[in-house]
Amino acid sequence: MLCARWEALIEISRAEEARYQTGFAHNLHEREAWFNISKIGASVPPMEVIEVALAVYLLRVENPPRFKSDTAFGVQLVRRVRSLAPVSIGSYFDHKATKVRSVYRDCKPKTTAILARLLQDTFGVAGLTVAHLERHEAQKLRDEKQALYEALEELK
User: Fold this and answer.
1) Residue 85, domain extent
2) What's the CA gap between 123 and 116, in Å, rounded?
3) Is the pTM of this model over 0.90?
4) What total number of domains does the chain contain?
């Protein structure tokens, strides 16, 4: 289901790019967001994007202080997903080392906010559900271990 949702988002982004190419006026930041989604969709397998997005949600549930706000979480979600594709890589020539260096290119804050909203709408419910299931499973394992320790104590 998540693959279908991701593919639908990619199709919407391609449709928006086609509208832009016909001369339809667009917001610059929305256009950049759709461009990023298209590039990520073209160069990264859907399951890889889904795994990274769900992992960021799992990190949020397991370690809430890591993200200072919902905006900070959205920015990190966008950065991790964008880092999968070459759209996030820039390069420059380092004259001292006499070679080309690669650097991470962040997108503009308004574009990042739009991308965060799109990704959260696509993966949000599933991400939180998976994170809570993981937490529940870990708690179940701790309870089983505690029951084993208690049973062993009774044997003494």
Assistant:
1) 2-155
2) 10
3) no
4) 1
